[in-house]
Design a protein that fits this description.
243 residues; Rossmann fold; 7-stranded mixed sheet; globular; binds ligand GEK
Amino acid sequence: MSLIKDTLFASPIESVSSFKFDSAVVNVFADMIQRSVPGYQTIIYAIGLVADRYAKEHTVCYDLGCSLGAATLSMRHQISTQHCKIIAVDNSPDMLRQFKKTLDEDDGHQEVDVVCADIRDVPIKNASVVVLNFTLQFILVEDRYDFLQKIYQGLMPGGVLILSEKLRFEDQRQQSLQTDLHHLFKKSQGYSDLEISQKRSALENVLIAETFVEHQQRLQSVGFSSVEVWFQYFNFASIVALK
Ligand code: GEK
Protein backbone atom coordinates (compact mmCIF):
# COMPACT_ATOMS: atom_id res chain seq x y z
CA MET A 1 0.00 0.00 0.00
CA SER A 2 1.51 3.38 -0.97
CA LEU A 3 1.51 5.99 1.80
CA ILE A 4 -0.32 9.28 1.45
CA LYS A 5 2.16 12.05 2.28
CA ASP A 6 1.46 14.13 5.37
CA THR A 7 1.19 17.80 4.35
CA LEU A 8 -1.37 18.80 7.03
CA PHE A 9 0.81 21.55 8.49
CA ALA A 10 2.67 22.50 5.29
CA SER A 11 0.80 25.78 4.56
CA PRO A 12 0.58 28.68 7.02
CA ILE A 13 -2.41 28.25 9.35
CA GLU A 14 -3.79 31.44 10.87
CA SER A 15 -4.71 29.89 14.18
CA VAL A 16 -3.46 26.36 14.78
CA SER A 17 -6.06 24.33 16.67
CA SER A 18 -5.42 21.38 18.99
CA PHE A 19 -4.35 18.15 17.36
CA LYS A 20 -7.16 15.60 16.82
CA PHE A 21 -7.12 12.05 15.48
CA ASP A 22 -9.76 12.83 12.84
CA SER A 23 -10.19 11.64 9.24
CA ALA A 24 -7.68 14.18 7.87
CA VAL A 25 -5.00 12.79 10.22
CA VAL A 26 -6.02 9.18 9.61
CA ASN A 27 -5.46 9.54 5.84
CA VAL A 28 -1.82 10.51 6.35
CA PHE A 29 -1.17 8.84 9.71
CA ALA A 30 1.08 6.00 8.54
CA ASP A 31 3.38 8.48 6.80
CA MET A 32 3.14 11.04 9.63
CA ILE A 33 4.16 8.72 12.45
CA GLN A 34 7.07 7.18 10.54
CA ARG A 35 8.50 10.58 9.62
CA SER A 36 7.85 12.06 13.08
CA VAL A 37 8.84 9.35 15.56
CA PRO A 38 12.50 8.32 15.27
CA GLY A 39 12.76 4.54 15.44
CA TYR A 40 9.03 3.93 14.98
CA GLN A 41 9.41 0.90 12.65
CA THR A 42 12.09 -0.63 14.87
CA ILE A 43 9.79 -0.33 17.88
CA ILE A 44 6.84 -1.81 15.99
CA TYR A 45 8.88 -4.82 14.89
CA ALA A 46 10.32 -5.35 18.39
CA ILE A 47 6.85 -5.23 20.00
CA GLY A 48 6.10 -8.42 18.07
CA LEU A 49 9.32 -10.03 19.31
CA VAL A 50 8.65 -9.14 22.95
CA ALA A 51 5.02 -10.21 22.64
CA ASP A 52 6.07 -13.58 21.27
CA ARG A 53 8.25 -14.14 24.33
CA TYR A 54 5.53 -13.21 26.87
CA ALA A 55 2.24 -14.22 25.22
CA LYS A 56 0.70 -17.30 26.80
CA GLU A 57 -1.96 -19.63 25.49
CA HIS A 58 -5.55 -18.60 26.35
CA THR A 59 -4.51 -15.12 27.48
CA VAL A 60 -5.06 -11.68 25.97
CA CYS A 61 -2.62 -9.19 24.42
CA TYR A 62 -3.90 -5.61 24.51
CA ASP A 63 -2.89 -2.84 22.10
CA LEU A 64 -4.22 0.32 23.77
CA GLY A 65 -4.41 3.35 21.46
CA CYS A 66 -3.89 1.08 18.47
CA SER A 67 -4.44 3.73 15.72
CA LEU A 68 -4.08 1.85 12.41
CA GLY A 69 -3.04 -1.32 14.22
CA ALA A 70 0.68 -1.45 13.46
CA ALA A 71 1.58 -2.98 16.84
CA THR A 72 -1.38 -5.38 16.69
CA LEU A 73 -0.30 -6.62 13.27
CA SER A 74 3.30 -7.03 14.43
CA MET A 75 2.09 -9.13 17.39
CA ARG A 76 -0.38 -11.04 15.25
CA HIS A 77 2.35 -12.15 12.86
CA GLN A 78 5.04 -12.88 15.44
CA ILE A 79 3.24 -14.55 18.36
CA SER A 80 3.67 -18.27 17.89
CA THR A 81 1.55 -19.39 20.87
CA GLN A 82 -1.87 -20.68 19.81
CA HIS A 83 -5.19 -19.29 21.06
CA CYS A 84 -3.91 -15.93 22.15
CA LYS A 85 -6.41 -13.18 21.46
CA ILE A 86 -5.42 -9.58 20.70
CA ILE A 87 -7.74 -6.77 21.81
CA ALA A 88 -6.98 -3.50 19.99
CA VAL A 89 -8.58 -0.35 21.40
CA ASP A 90 -8.80 3.23 20.17
CA ASN A 91 -11.36 6.01 20.65
CA SER A 92 -11.01 7.40 17.11
CA PRO A 93 -13.71 5.83 14.88
CA ASP A 94 -11.84 7.14 11.81
CA MET A 95 -8.68 5.24 12.82
CA LEU A 96 -10.57 2.03 13.49
CA ARG A 97 -12.51 2.17 10.20
CA GLN A 98 -9.21 2.22 8.35
CA PHE A 99 -7.65 -0.43 10.60
CA LYS A 100 -10.58 -2.82 10.02
CA LYS A 101 -10.05 -2.55 6.24
CA THR A 102 -6.41 -3.58 6.74
CA LEU A 103 -7.44 -6.45 9.00
CA ASP A 104 -9.89 -7.75 6.39
CA GLU A 105 -6.95 -8.25 4.04
CA ASP A 106 -4.56 -9.58 6.66
CA ASP A 107 -3.85 -13.31 6.88
CA GLY A 108 -2.52 -13.46 10.47
CA HIS A 109 -3.84 -16.37 12.52
CA GLN A 110 -4.43 -14.82 15.97
CA GLU A 111 -7.95 -13.57 16.65
CA VAL A 112 -8.20 -9.75 16.83
CA ASP A 113 -11.06 -7.83 18.50
CA VAL A 114 -11.20 -4.15 17.56
CA VAL A 115 -12.88 -2.02 20.21
CA CYS A 116 -13.86 1.65 19.91
CA ALA A 117 -13.60 3.01 23.45
CA ASP A 118 -11.65 5.20 25.79
CA ILE A 119 -8.75 3.06 26.99
CA ARG A 120 -9.38 4.27 30.54
CA ASP A 121 -12.79 2.54 30.47
CA VAL A 122 -11.74 -0.82 29.02
CA PRO A 123 -11.47 -3.71 31.49
CA ILE A 124 -8.05 -5.40 31.37
CA LYS A 125 -8.34 -9.09 32.18
CA ASN A 126 -6.17 -12.18 31.82
CA ALA A 127 -3.46 -10.19 30.03
CA SER A 128 -0.01 -11.52 29.26
CA VAL A 129 1.05 -8.51 27.16
CA VAL A 130 -0.12 -4.88 27.22
CA VAL A 131 1.14 -2.37 24.65
CA LEU A 132 0.88 1.39 25.08
CA ASN A 133 2.79 2.55 22.01
CA PHE A 134 2.84 6.38 22.18
CA THR A 135 -0.61 6.55 23.77
CA LEU A 136 -0.14 7.25 27.49
CA GLN A 137 1.22 10.68 26.53
CA PHE A 138 -2.31 11.66 25.40
CA ILE A 139 -3.94 10.64 28.71
CA LEU A 140 -4.39 13.36 31.35
CA VAL A 141 -1.44 13.21 33.74
CA GLU A 142 -3.77 12.95 36.74
CA ASP A 143 -5.43 9.84 35.25
CA ARG A 144 -2.18 8.01 34.51
CA TYR A 145 -1.64 6.38 37.92
CA ASP A 146 -5.11 4.77 38.15
CA PHE A 147 -4.96 3.72 34.51
CA LEU A 148 -1.58 1.99 34.94
CA GLN A 149 -2.74 0.40 38.17
CA LYS A 150 -5.69 -1.10 36.30
CA ILE A 151 -3.27 -2.48 33.69
CA TYR A 152 -1.01 -3.92 36.40
CA GLN A 153 -3.97 -5.63 38.06
CA GLY A 154 -5.16 -7.08 34.75
CA LEU A 155 -1.75 -8.54 33.91
CA MET A 156 -0.98 -12.09 34.96
CA PRO A 157 2.14 -12.67 37.05
CA GLY A 158 5.04 -12.78 34.59
CA GLY A 159 3.23 -10.43 32.19
CA VAL A 160 4.77 -7.46 30.41
CA LEU A 161 3.82 -3.87 29.65
CA ILE A 162 5.55 -2.20 26.70
CA LEU A 163 5.29 1.57 27.10
CA SER A 164 6.65 3.87 24.38
CA GLU A 165 6.61 7.62 24.99
CA LYS A 166 8.03 10.94 23.93
CA LEU A 167 10.27 11.96 26.84
CA ARG A 168 10.90 15.24 28.61
CA PHE A 169 14.25 15.95 30.30
CA GLU A 170 14.76 17.62 33.66
CA ASP A 171 18.05 19.23 32.58
CA GLN A 172 17.24 22.17 30.29
CA ARG A 173 20.39 21.70 28.17
CA GLN A 174 19.40 18.10 27.56
CA GLN A 175 15.79 19.13 26.81
CA SER A 176 16.87 21.63 24.15
CA LEU A 177 19.50 19.29 22.71
CA GLN A 178 17.05 16.39 22.32
CA THR A 179 14.33 18.69 20.95
CA ASP A 180 16.77 20.11 18.38
CA LEU A 181 17.91 16.62 17.40
CA HIS A 182 14.29 15.55 16.94
CA HIS A 183 13.66 18.58 14.73
CA LEU A 184 16.74 17.74 12.66
CA PHE A 185 15.36 14.22 12.30
CA LYS A 186 12.02 15.62 11.07
CA LYS A 187 13.80 17.94 8.62
CA SER A 188 15.77 14.98 7.29
CA GLN A 189 12.41 13.29 6.71
CA GLY A 190 11.26 16.19 4.53
CA TYR A 191 9.29 18.34 7.00
CA SER A 192 9.83 22.11 6.76
CA ASP A 193 10.46 24.42 9.73
CA LEU A 194 6.89 25.74 9.33
CA GLU A 195 5.40 22.24 9.44
CA ILE A 196 7.49 21.35 12.50
CA SER A 197 6.49 24.47 14.40
CA GLN A 198 2.78 24.35 13.49
CA LYS A 199 2.60 20.67 14.48
CA ARG A 200 4.33 21.48 17.76
CA SER A 201 1.69 24.16 18.49
CA ALA A 202 -1.12 21.72 17.67
CA LEU A 203 0.30 19.16 20.12
CA GLU A 204 0.86 21.65 22.93
CA ASN A 205 -1.38 20.74 25.88
CA VAL A 206 -2.47 17.58 24.00
CA LEU A 207 0.72 15.51 24.25
CA ILE A 208 2.16 15.80 27.76
CA ALA A 209 5.63 14.26 27.95
CA GLU A 210 7.20 13.17 31.22
CA THR A 211 10.74 12.16 32.18
CA PHE A 212 11.89 8.53 32.25
CA VAL A 213 12.22 8.77 36.03
CA GLU A 214 8.60 9.94 36.36
CA HIS A 215 7.46 6.96 34.28
CA GLN A 216 9.72 4.54 36.14
CA GLN A 217 8.64 5.71 39.59
CA ARG A 218 4.93 5.58 38.70
CA LEU A 219 5.24 2.11 37.17
CA GLN A 220 7.11 0.87 40.24
CA SER A 221 4.58 2.43 42.58
CA VAL A 222 1.67 0.61 40.89
CA GLY A 223 3.63 -2.62 41.43
CA PHE A 224 5.89 -3.38 38.44
CA SER A 225 9.01 -5.05 39.79
CA SER A 226 11.38 -4.09 36.97
CA VAL A 227 11.19 -1.08 34.64
CA GLU A 228 13.87 -0.44 32.01
CA VAL A 229 14.33 1.37 28.71
CA TRP A 230 15.00 -1.13 25.93
CA PHE A 231 15.13 1.48 23.10
CA GLN A 232 15.75 5.21 22.83
CA TYR A 233 16.30 7.48 19.86
CA PHE A 234 16.60 11.14 20.96
CA ASN A 235 13.49 12.06 22.99
CA PHE A 236 11.51 8.94 22.05
CA ALA A 237 11.85 5.85 24.20
CA SER A 238 10.30 2.47 24.74
CA ILE A 239 10.15 0.88 28.17
CA VAL A 240 9.51 -2.70 29.29
CA ALA A 241 7.84 -3.10 32.68
CA LEU A 242 7.69 -6.58 34.17
CA LYS A 243 5.07 -7.80 36.64
C1 GEK B 1 0.92 2.76 16.78
N1 GEK B 1 -0.12 2.86 18.98
O1 GEK B 1 0.93 3.05 15.57
N2 GEK B 1 -8.67 6.24 24.48
C2 GEK B 1 -8.42 5.53 23.35
N3 GEK B 1 -7.53 5.92 22.41
C3 GEK B 1 -6.89 7.08 22.61
C4 GEK B 1 -7.10 7.88 23.75
C5 GEK B 1 -8.03 7.41 24.71
N4 GEK B 1 -8.28 8.10 25.82
N5 GEK B 1 -6.32 8.98 23.66
C6 GEK B 1 -5.63 8.88 22.50
N6 GEK B 1 -5.98 7.73 21.86
C7 GEK B 1 -0.09 3.46 17.66
C8 GEK B 1 0.18 4.94 17.70
S1 GEK B 1 -1.04 7.34 18.29
C9 GEK B 1 0.42 8.15 18.65
C10 GEK B 1 -0.62 5.67 18.73
C11 GEK B 1 0.64 9.43 17.95
C12 GEK B 1 -5.47 7.22 20.60
C13 GEK B 1 -5.59 8.18 19.42
O2 GEK B 1 -6.87 8.12 18.83
C14 GEK B 1 -4.47 7.69 18.50
O3 GEK B 1 -4.94 6.77 17.57
C15 GEK B 1 -3.47 7.03 19.47
O4 GEK B 1 -4.10 7.01 20.76
C16 GEK B 1 -2.14 7.73 19.58
O5 GEK B 1 1.67 1.93 17.30
O6 GEK B 1 -0.14 9.84 17.08
O7 GEK B 1 1.69 10.10 18.30
